[in-house]
Fold:
Amino acid sequence: IRENYFLPLSDSFPALQKNFSRSSIRNIKKATDENITIKAGINSSEIIAIHRERFKDNVGANEDDYKRLQKLFAKLHLKNMLFTLGAYNNKNILIAGSIYFVYKNRITFIINGNNTDSLKNGATHLLMNETIKKNCGKEFILDFEGSDFPEFVRFYKQYGALVENYTMVKINNLPWPLSLFKK
Structure:
């Protein structure tokens, strides 16, 4: 059994914001006070690059995975099924970015990239705030997806995300004895 986090966006922004944690409100204010600006349409490769710099491939993905992801993003972008947001500091340097996949009524938070500066000034919180603000009052569901990383889960919960359980099944179709060596 795994967990997925989601937030229905049909309410007004003030109604949704009432469920934000004090920490998220404080970080959003900090980012605003630091003159962090949000821009749409950021190149997804820039966001992937700062994501990889921060996490050093410790999220279970390798070079080939990121290349395939970039190709997928390019195709989704052409079909208007992807949007990106970037947070810029007062020197107009990208310090955080988010990539979202849009399908039917679901906006799925795919990847976030941020550097250490963004952690100090709440830029990622401002990005999420902007995503919620731009899509509230519509019949969208913001899907944070599940995560095995506690710091990601904590971040999702700061916005009033609800949890749903799902079952994950792993199938190993390798023949014996090779199947014994698969992780």
Remarks:
- The longest strand covers residues 94-103.
- The CA atoms of residues 43 and 84 lie 7 Å apart.
- The first helix runs from residue 13 to 17.
- The chain has seven helices and seven strands.
